[in-house]
Hints:
Blueprint (H helix, E strand, L loop, with lengths): L67 H11 L4 E2 L6 E2 L1 E5 L2 H16 L6 E2 H8 L16 E3 L13 E4 L1 H7 L5 E2 L1 E5 L2 E5 L3 E2 L1 H5 L5 H5 L3
Antiparallel strand pairs: 1-2, 3-8, 4-6, 5-6, 7-10, 8-9
Amino acid sequence: MSRSSKAPQLDLFGAKPTPSPAKEPVKAPSIPPPPPVPPKSMAAKAYVAPKAPRGSYPPPPDQSRTTLLAARIWLQEGKERGVVCPCCDQYAKIYKRKFNSSMARGLITLARYASTHPQEEWFHLATIFRDAKVCASNDGALLRHWGLIAPFKGQRKDGSKRVGYHRLTDLGKSFAKGIGTIPAYAVLYSEELLRLSEEQVTMKAALGAKFSFEELMGGQ
Protein backbone atom coordinates (compact mmCIF):
# COMPACT_ATOMS: atom_id res chain seq x y z
CA MET A 1 0.00 0.00 0.00
CA SER A 2 1.33 3.40 -0.92
CA ARG A 3 1.96 6.05 1.69
CA SER A 4 -0.49 8.43 0.10
CA SER A 5 -3.49 6.14 0.69
CA LYS A 6 -5.13 6.24 4.10
CA ALA A 7 -6.60 3.19 5.80
CA PRO A 8 -10.09 3.45 7.14
CA GLN A 9 -10.21 4.40 10.82
CA LEU A 10 -11.60 1.95 13.37
CA ASP A 11 -13.26 2.92 16.62
CA LEU A 12 -12.02 1.53 19.90
CA PHE A 13 -14.64 -1.21 19.97
CA GLY A 14 -13.65 -2.69 16.66
CA ALA A 15 -16.58 -1.39 14.67
CA LYS A 16 -16.56 -1.56 10.93
CA PRO A 17 -15.49 1.53 9.00
CA THR A 18 -18.24 4.06 8.32
CA PRO A 19 -18.65 4.64 4.58
CA SER A 20 -18.81 8.20 3.29
CA PRO A 21 -22.36 9.34 2.32
CA ALA A 22 -23.00 9.08 -1.40
CA LYS A 23 -23.38 12.41 -3.19
CA GLU A 24 -26.53 12.94 -5.29
CA PRO A 25 -25.84 13.70 -8.93
CA VAL A 26 -26.36 17.32 -9.94
CA LYS A 27 -29.53 17.72 -12.05
CA ALA A 28 -29.64 20.17 -14.89
CA PRO A 29 -32.39 22.83 -14.60
CA SER A 30 -35.54 21.94 -16.53
CA ILE A 31 -36.25 24.09 -19.57
CA PRO A 32 -39.97 24.91 -20.11
CA PRO A 33 -41.39 23.87 -23.46
CA PRO A 34 -42.01 26.63 -26.04
CA PRO A 35 -45.53 28.13 -26.13
CA PRO A 36 -47.89 26.56 -28.66
CA VAL A 37 -48.16 28.30 -32.02
CA PRO A 38 -51.70 29.67 -32.54
CA PRO A 39 -53.52 28.53 -35.68
CA LYS A 40 -53.59 30.82 -38.66
CA SER A 41 -57.23 31.71 -38.02
CA MET A 42 -56.29 33.13 -34.58
CA ALA A 43 -53.22 35.01 -35.70
CA ALA A 44 -53.41 38.78 -35.29
CA LYS A 45 -54.20 40.60 -38.48
CA ALA A 46 -53.27 44.12 -39.38
CA TYR A 47 -56.17 46.59 -39.47
CA VAL A 48 -57.32 47.47 -42.95
CA ALA A 49 -59.43 50.62 -43.21
CA PRO A 50 -62.71 50.09 -45.11
CA LYS A 51 -62.89 51.68 -48.50
CA ALA A 52 -65.06 54.77 -48.64
CA PRO A 53 -67.37 55.34 -51.61
CA ARG A 54 -65.98 57.36 -54.47
CA GLY A 55 -66.06 61.09 -53.80
CA SER A 56 -66.52 60.69 -50.03
CA TYR A 57 -64.42 61.90 -47.10
CA PRO A 58 -60.79 60.67 -46.81
CA PRO A 59 -60.44 57.15 -45.32
CA PRO A 60 -60.40 56.88 -41.51
CA PRO A 61 -57.21 56.63 -39.45
CA ASP A 62 -55.77 53.31 -38.31
CA GLN A 63 -58.30 51.84 -35.88
CA SER A 64 -55.56 50.29 -33.73
CA ARG A 65 -53.93 53.69 -33.17
CA THR A 66 -56.88 56.00 -32.59
CA THR A 67 -59.27 56.62 -29.70
CA LEU A 68 -63.05 56.40 -29.71
CA LEU A 69 -63.27 60.16 -29.19
CA ALA A 70 -61.03 60.81 -32.20
CA ALA A 71 -63.17 58.47 -34.31
CA ARG A 72 -66.33 60.32 -33.27
CA ILE A 73 -64.80 63.69 -34.12
CA TRP A 74 -63.67 62.37 -37.50
CA LEU A 75 -67.19 61.02 -38.17
CA GLN A 76 -68.88 64.31 -37.23
CA GLU A 77 -66.57 66.26 -39.53
CA GLY A 78 -67.18 63.99 -42.51
CA LYS A 79 -70.85 63.00 -42.33
CA GLU A 80 -71.92 66.01 -44.40
CA ARG A 81 -70.14 64.48 -47.40
CA GLY A 82 -70.51 60.83 -46.40
CA VAL A 83 -68.03 58.55 -44.60
CA VAL A 84 -67.61 54.96 -43.51
CA CYS A 85 -67.60 54.75 -39.71
CA PRO A 86 -64.24 53.33 -38.47
CA CYS A 87 -66.03 51.64 -35.53
CA CYS A 88 -68.94 49.82 -37.21
CA ASP A 89 -68.10 50.05 -40.96
CA GLN A 90 -71.52 51.63 -41.66
CA TYR A 91 -71.89 54.39 -44.23
CA ALA A 92 -72.89 57.65 -42.53
CA LYS A 93 -74.19 60.66 -44.42
CA ILE A 94 -76.49 63.64 -43.90
CA TYR A 95 -79.26 63.72 -46.51
CA LYS A 96 -81.20 66.70 -47.78
CA ARG A 97 -84.70 65.46 -48.62
CA LYS A 98 -86.95 67.59 -50.77
CA PHE A 99 -90.70 67.71 -50.25
CA ASN A 100 -91.41 66.20 -53.65
CA SER A 101 -94.48 65.46 -55.71
CA SER A 102 -94.71 61.91 -54.35
CA MET A 103 -95.03 63.24 -50.79
CA ALA A 104 -97.56 65.86 -51.91
CA ARG A 105 -99.74 63.24 -53.60
CA GLY A 106 -99.45 61.00 -50.56
CA LEU A 107 -100.60 63.79 -48.24
CA ILE A 108 -103.60 64.59 -50.47
CA THR A 109 -104.48 60.88 -50.53
CA LEU A 110 -104.46 60.79 -46.73
CA ALA A 111 -106.64 63.91 -46.55
CA ARG A 112 -109.19 62.40 -48.92
CA TYR A 113 -109.21 59.13 -46.97
CA ALA A 114 -109.70 60.99 -43.67
CA SER A 115 -112.65 62.94 -45.13
CA THR A 116 -114.40 59.74 -46.22
CA HIS A 117 -113.59 57.83 -43.01
CA PRO A 118 -114.24 60.36 -40.23
CA GLN A 119 -114.61 57.58 -37.66
CA GLU A 120 -110.97 56.54 -38.15
CA GLU A 121 -108.51 58.83 -36.39
CA TRP A 122 -105.54 56.50 -36.98
CA PHE A 123 -104.86 54.79 -40.30
CA HIS A 124 -102.21 52.47 -41.69
CA LEU A 125 -100.03 54.40 -44.13
CA ALA A 126 -98.67 51.47 -46.11
CA THR A 127 -102.14 50.07 -46.76
CA ILE A 128 -103.59 53.37 -47.97
CA PHE A 129 -100.64 54.18 -50.21
CA ARG A 130 -100.57 50.67 -51.63
CA ASP A 131 -104.27 50.73 -52.51
CA ALA A 132 -103.98 54.23 -54.04
CA LYS A 133 -100.65 53.40 -55.75
CA VAL A 134 -99.00 56.61 -54.59
CA CYS A 135 -96.04 57.64 -52.47
CA ALA A 136 -93.10 55.55 -53.59
CA SER A 137 -90.59 54.05 -51.20
CA ASN A 138 -90.67 55.51 -47.67
CA ASP A 139 -91.76 59.00 -48.73
CA GLY A 140 -95.01 58.62 -46.82
CA ALA A 141 -93.35 58.06 -43.45
CA LEU A 142 -91.12 61.09 -44.04
CA LEU A 143 -94.16 63.37 -43.83
CA ARG A 144 -93.74 63.29 -40.06
CA HIS A 145 -90.55 65.37 -40.31
CA TRP A 146 -92.62 68.29 -41.64
CA GLY A 147 -95.21 67.85 -38.89
CA LEU A 148 -97.89 66.86 -41.42
CA ILE A 149 -98.65 63.52 -39.78
CA ALA A 150 -98.12 62.17 -36.26
CA PRO A 151 -97.16 58.54 -35.52
CA PHE A 152 -99.12 56.39 -33.11
CA LYS A 153 -97.14 55.95 -29.88
CA GLY A 154 -97.27 52.27 -29.12
CA GLN A 155 -95.45 48.98 -29.54
CA ARG A 156 -95.95 45.84 -31.57
CA LYS A 157 -95.85 42.39 -30.05
CA ASP A 158 -92.16 42.11 -30.92
CA GLY A 159 -91.39 45.36 -29.06
CA SER A 160 -90.88 47.54 -32.13
CA LYS A 161 -92.29 51.07 -32.03
CA ARG A 162 -92.91 51.08 -35.79
CA VAL A 163 -96.58 50.20 -35.70
CA GLY A 164 -97.30 51.93 -39.02
CA TYR A 165 -100.34 53.90 -37.85
CA HIS A 166 -100.51 57.69 -38.18
CA ARG A 167 -103.01 60.53 -38.09
CA LEU A 168 -103.19 63.83 -39.93
CA THR A 169 -102.20 66.93 -37.98
CA ASP A 170 -103.93 70.30 -38.33
CA LEU A 171 -100.99 71.48 -40.42
CA GLY A 172 -101.30 68.40 -42.63
CA LYS A 173 -105.02 68.96 -43.18
CA SER A 174 -104.59 72.62 -44.12
CA PHE A 175 -101.56 72.09 -46.35
CA ALA A 176 -103.31 69.23 -48.17
CA LYS A 177 -105.98 71.80 -49.10
CA GLY A 178 -103.32 74.11 -50.54
CA ILE A 179 -103.28 76.51 -47.59
CA GLY A 180 -99.97 78.03 -46.52
CA THR A 181 -96.40 76.85 -47.10
CA ILE A 182 -93.97 74.43 -45.52
CA PRO A 183 -90.14 74.14 -45.62
CA ALA A 184 -88.95 72.91 -49.00
CA TYR A 185 -86.27 70.59 -47.56
CA ALA A 186 -85.63 68.46 -44.48
CA VAL A 187 -82.07 67.63 -43.43
CA LEU A 188 -81.90 64.09 -42.05
CA TYR A 189 -79.24 61.94 -40.42
CA SER A 190 -79.86 58.30 -39.48
CA GLU A 191 -83.60 58.79 -40.08
CA GLU A 192 -83.69 61.65 -37.57
CA LEU A 193 -84.53 65.29 -38.36
CA LEU A 194 -81.66 67.74 -37.92
CA ARG A 195 -83.29 70.87 -39.32
CA LEU A 196 -85.76 72.23 -41.84
CA SER A 197 -84.84 74.67 -44.58
CA GLU A 198 -85.78 78.34 -44.52
CA GLU A 199 -86.90 78.04 -48.13
CA GLN A 200 -90.66 77.46 -48.38
CA VAL A 201 -92.82 75.62 -50.89
CA THR A 202 -96.54 75.55 -51.68
CA MET A 203 -98.59 72.47 -52.40
CA LYS A 204 -98.99 73.34 -56.09
CA ALA A 205 -95.27 74.00 -56.45
CA ALA A 206 -94.47 70.64 -54.83
CA LEU A 207 -96.83 68.82 -57.21
CA GLY A 208 -95.18 70.43 -60.21
CA ALA A 209 -96.63 70.77 -63.68
CA LYS A 210 -97.18 67.03 -64.06
CA PHE A 211 -100.04 66.83 -61.55
CA SER A 212 -103.17 68.96 -61.10
CA PHE A 213 -104.01 69.93 -57.55
CA GLU A 214 -107.68 70.35 -58.36
CA GLU A 215 -107.91 66.89 -59.96
CA LEU A 216 -106.14 65.22 -57.06
CA MET A 217 -108.42 66.87 -54.52
CA GLY A 218 -111.46 65.77 -56.50
CA GLY A 219 -113.32 69.06 -56.16
CA GLN A 220 -112.99 69.20 -52.35
